[in-house]
Backbone:
């Protein structure tokens, strides 16, 4: 399709927006935003564009969040309209990442390989959050090792660079993982024969440091919250949902299973899980109109960051929404100490991760020590010879 084809479709969409009562300023602005997409993806036509094309387009823009969000919203609205009027069967923009899109800022020799690595991670289905973390970490490495190119780097270069960082162990482990991932990709892609990161020294895992939100803080937040924010609080604290999972809750995800109601939770990495619903939360969800529980005025659902911000405002200073997930893990584990069940409920890939969420109270440890002490102090019956 030609530029004229884009223009005809965009004009038709703008007429539809005006007929629906959209303000002229909104109609003009959204039309301009989609025309910018058209110019950047040429010679692709509007209905030749794929999800990956859109992700790559947005990832290449060094926009602030305040700019990125309106563009994402306009593109999603355009393709939703295209589905409604029958131009296409499915919108390529429906699952566009909402936040933290990768913005590359690496020395020139690194840029093309890093972009190819990003594409590879997305093909593998890595969560966008993982892609962003890994790219930002590699960006730090590239800046620190410049002017060396990515395929000139040796094991000694990596060891020396990492040794100069006063990081916590978890930060060090994460950077090591990103480096190993990048260079394993480089070997598979034929850029190098051997990974310089493969023999990076192992980093010992830190001891678990759970931080469940205090009970009094949670109770006070529930009492003072508006209904929408109260439901956000409860989903995190009483069901263990992440902020991104809370944001995506939809009434269609309520399902009957094993004699009760459950919620399909859309987790990290497009991994869904099903969690039984407590009666109180079920009642609140069933009272909502069809659609997202936390819908956005721009369409779709609220962003994970915004949900986290709303909840954090209800908690004492220094406590984030994720602490409510730690609260759930700690309370769930305390009931019958079934770590595997808690792991499933939280959607973790391993019990070791779940253990980092569980705070074992001093009273539990004291009780165990006391029981062992009492067992060892039991008098033994003397035996006498006949």
Residues:
């Amino acid at each position: 399709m030609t530029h004229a084809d884009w223009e005809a479709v965009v004009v038709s969409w703008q007429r539809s927006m005006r007929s629906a009562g959209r303000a002229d300023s909104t109609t003009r602005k959204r039309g301009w935003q989609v025309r910018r997409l058209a110019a950047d993806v040429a010679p692709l036509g509007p209905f030749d564009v794929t999800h990956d094309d859109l992700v790559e387009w947005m990832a290449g823009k060094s926009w602030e969040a305040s700019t990125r969000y309106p563009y994402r919203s306009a593109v999603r609205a355009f393709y939703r309209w295209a589905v409604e009027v029958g131009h296409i069967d499915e919108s390529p923009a429906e699952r566009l990442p909402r936040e933290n899109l990768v913005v590359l800022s690496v020395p020139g020799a690194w840029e093309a390989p890093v972009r190819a690595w990003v594409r590879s991670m997305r093909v593998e289905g890595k969560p966008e959050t993982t892609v962003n973390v890994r790219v930002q970490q590699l960006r730090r490495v590239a800046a620190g090792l410049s002017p060396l190119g990515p395929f000139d780097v040796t094991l000694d270069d990596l060891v020396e660079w990492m040794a100069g960082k006063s990081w916590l162990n978890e930060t060090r482990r994460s950077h090591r993982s990103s480096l190993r991932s990048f260079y394993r990709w480089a070997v598979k892609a034929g850029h190098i024969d051997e990974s310089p990161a493969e023999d990076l020294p192992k980093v010992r895992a830190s001891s678990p440091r759970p931080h469940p939100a205090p009970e009094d803080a949670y109770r006070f937040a529930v009492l003072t919250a508006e209904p929408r924010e109260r439901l956000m609080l409860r989903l995190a604290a009483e069901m263990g949902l992440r902020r991104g999972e809370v944001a995506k809750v939809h009434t269609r995800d309520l399902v009957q299973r094993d004699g009760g109601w459950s919620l399909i939770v859309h987790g990290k990495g497009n991994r869904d899980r099903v969690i039984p619903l407590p009666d109180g939360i079920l009642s609140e969800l069933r009272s909502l109109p069809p659609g997202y529980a936390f819908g956005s005025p721009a369409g779709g659902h609220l962003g994970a960051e915004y949900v986290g911000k709303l909840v954090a405002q209800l908690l004492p200073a220094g406590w984030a929404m994720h602490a409510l997930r730690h609260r759930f893990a700690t309370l769930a584990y305390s009931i019958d100490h079934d770590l595997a069940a808690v792991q499933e409920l939280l959607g973790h890939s391993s019990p070791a991760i779940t253990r980092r969420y569980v705070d074992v109270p001093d009273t539990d440890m004291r009780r165990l020590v006391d029981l062992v002490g009492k067992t060892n102090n039991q008098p033994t019956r003397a035996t006498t010879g006949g």
Q: What stands out?
A: Residues 65-84 form the longest helix (20 residues). The first strand starts at residue 254 and ends at 257.
